[in-house]
Design brief:
single chain; alpha/beta; Glutamine Phosphoribosylpyrophosphate, subunit 1, domain 1; Rossmann fold; 3 domains; 8-stranded antiparallel sheet; globular; binds 5-amino-5-deoxy-1-O-phosphono-D-mannitol
């Protein structure tokens, strides 16, 4: 939620920040703003809408050596220019951009109003520059920033600049912020792709780190009340991976990358899989926790662990975990799945586990993310940057990693790896131009439907749920996923003449799921079968060959393509659906 980028150094900061913010637009796209430090003056530009079309010239921003940009996903206050960031102190000298929520902003606002401060927006953020101004009545800029932190409850990644100072201050508490380190130049951003064109060297800030950056960087940790050293890490992502290449949208680019991302998982280091499997074997009481698409990967994990490893794992949506976390003991294990590694709800669940003395393993796509840094062990999904707001390639990598863990727990890791390698070859076909064209024709028939229902059994049940999420979030068509067995318990009442129903089949579930398909058809349903065999119940058949335990990985791919095609046909933005943001860093 909300993207931040800033630069200090010898190059044109304005250009770097404008182009960098475009790379972070997936984090929020209600409105955007920039501040450029021009000698000892500020030039600020704010706009409602998306930053994609903005240019430094068009916004009237001069060249500079210090600049800050922000793209907003509104929390406090509507989508207006006044509420867009940056926010400025009353004396016009201090400028702040913020990702997160200041929970006590109303109390602090009252306090500042009593000191004579005025407010011009409805945001929580505006109290921050004014709190700093208040402390600057007695202290210098850096000290005032430090003291201001004591007034802020909540989560925040902040970048702060002052009119009379050639420095950037960057602070993080429970919201992502990374520093890119170049030759005599520094970048501060919510996420690495913002500056990958310039450097792959990064410093990941820890909780309550406050970095003071000019020609060098010093980091003060407000929790420890002392200056600290932080290591530089080399990121193995490539700048090209974070670009669209020949594709019109990141969505289809990332869908098409799945053969190679899954190949990466198939070649993962056995040692790491074995270490994590040992943790699972030795634990008593294991929970998968995650949100959204990652939660469907967890559900898949429950099924695949039961099937292959003959183990039962609990699953809980991360934000529902407070209802169950009292079961945790020091022998428990929490396995957190998160593409971004920054989802607030998932991090809170992980922290609850830590507080109970339990171990935490994360499966994440983001090296250096909070999830990675706060876990005992991490398996990186290594799917490369996922820029589209919808999770696609990270999801199939999560499924593949869970599959390998299940195989290792059953003492058959090599067999699992072979199965994945076999699937990789088939995924080239599933993501090919031919498949895309075929699915486009199906999408043409579905584009005006108000509702769609998707069913699966066993491993295909989570697939049905994930497919519905893909369709809903990008095409805005109402789609619901059910376990096939649920139909007769009420759901079937929804079926009318022509209602599209997508039915996921497999050799194992065929008899029962085809019965369900027949029940739907008998009530007028328009049946789209997805699986290895055609059937008279189907009006349309999307052939996905039998891949047994890897069926879920294969069957979701035509559904990702269907969601994409529906979005295109309905004039929706496939990369940035309305109201969403890529990383949900607020509770
Ligand atoms: O970064 P995470 O995997 O923790 O994100 C979890 C969800 O917010 C995410 O999967 C979301 O549901 C996506 N919009 C799915 O496409």
């Amino acid at each position: 939620m909300c993207g931040i980028i800033s630069y200090i150094g010898p190059r044109d900061a304005t250009e770097i920040v404008v182009s960098g913010l475009k790379k972070l637009e997936y984090r929020g796209y209600d409105s955007f703003g920039f501040v450029v430090k021009n000698n000892s003056d500020f030039k600020i530009a704010k706009k409602v809408g998306r930053v994609s079309e903005a240019t430094a010239d068009g916004l009237g921003l001069p060249k500079s050596n210090i600049a800050v940009g922000h793209t907003r996903w509104a929390t406090h206050g509507g989508v207006t220019e006044a509420n867009a960031h940056p926010h400025v102190s009353n004396n016009g000298k201090i400028v702040v951009v913020h990702n997160g929520i200041i929970e006590n902003f109303q109390d602090q606002k009252k306090f500042l109003e009593l000191q004579g401060f005025k407010f011009y927006s409805q945001t929580d953020t505006e109290i921050i520059p004014n709190t700093i101004e208040y402390h600057m009545r007695k202290y210098d800029f850096v000290e005032a920033c430090k003291r201001s932190l004591k007034h802020l409850d909540g989560q925040y990644a902040l970048v702060i600049i002052h009119k009379d100072e050639n420095k950037i201050i960057a602070i993080r508490k429970e919201a992502p912020l990374v520093i890119g380190v170049g030759e005599g130049e520094f970048f501060v951003a919510s996420d690495v792709p913002a500056f990958l064109d310039y450097t792959k060297k990064v410093i990941f800030l820890n909780e309550m780190d406050m970095a003071v950056i000019d020609t060098a960087i010093t980091i003060f940790n407000a929790k420890k009340d002392t200056y600290v050293e932080r290591n530089i890490t080399n990121i193995d992502w490539d700048a090209e991976q974070a670009k669209k290449g020949n594709f019109e949208h990141f969505f289809m680019k990332e869908v098409s990358e799945q053969a190679s991302t899954l190949e990466g998982v198939a070649n993962i280091d056995n040692g790491l899989i074995r270490e994590v499997a040992d943790e699972i074997r030795n634990a008593e009481g294991i929970f998968f926790v995650a949100c959204g698409t990652a939660s469907y990967a967890c559900m898949h994990g429950v099924y695949i662990f039961a099937k292959i490893a003959k183990m039962h794992i609990n699953f809980c949506l991360a934000h529902e975990f407070p209802n169950f976390n009292h079961f945790l003991t020091p022998k428990s294990l929490v396995i957190a799945l998160s593409q971004s590694g920054e989802t607030a709800d998932t991090l809170i669940a992980m922290r609850a586990a830590k507080a109970a003395g339990a171990k935490v393993i994360s499966i994440t796509n983001a090296m250096g993310s909070t999830a990675m840094r706060e876990s005992d062990k991490t398996i990186l999904t290594r799917a490369g940057p996922e820029i589209c707001v919808l999770s696609t390639k990270a999801y199939t990598s999560q499924l593949a990693i869970l599959t390998l863990l299940a195989y290792e727990l059953a003492g058959k890791l090599e067999e699992g790896k072979e199965k994945l390698k076999d699937v990789v070859r088939y995924i080239y076909y599933l993501t090919s131009e031919n498949t895309r064209k075929f699915i486009q024709e199906i999408a043409k028939n579905l584009r005006y439907t108000p509702h769609m229902y998707l069913i699966g059994r066993g491993l295909q049940y989570p697939t049905a749920l994930e497919a519905t999420l893909k369709i809903k979030e990008v095409s805005y068509i109402h789609a619901e996923g059910f376990a096939g067995g649920e139909l007769k318990h009420g759901v079937i009442a929804l079926i009318e003449h022509g209602t599209p129903c997508i039915v996921f089949t497999s050799t194992e579930t065929e008899t029962e799921i085809i019965s369900n398909a027949m029940e739907l058809k008998a009530r007028g349903g328009y049946i789209i079968g997805v699986g290895p065999n055609n059937n008279p119940a189907f009006d349309v058949w999307i052939k996905v060959r039998e891949s047994e335990e890897a069926n879920s990985i294969c069957q979701i791919i035509p559904m990702q393509i269907l969601a994409y095609q529906l979005a295109i046909l309905r004039g929706c933005d496939p990369d940035k659906p309305r109201n969403l943001a890529k990383s949900v860093t607020v509770k």
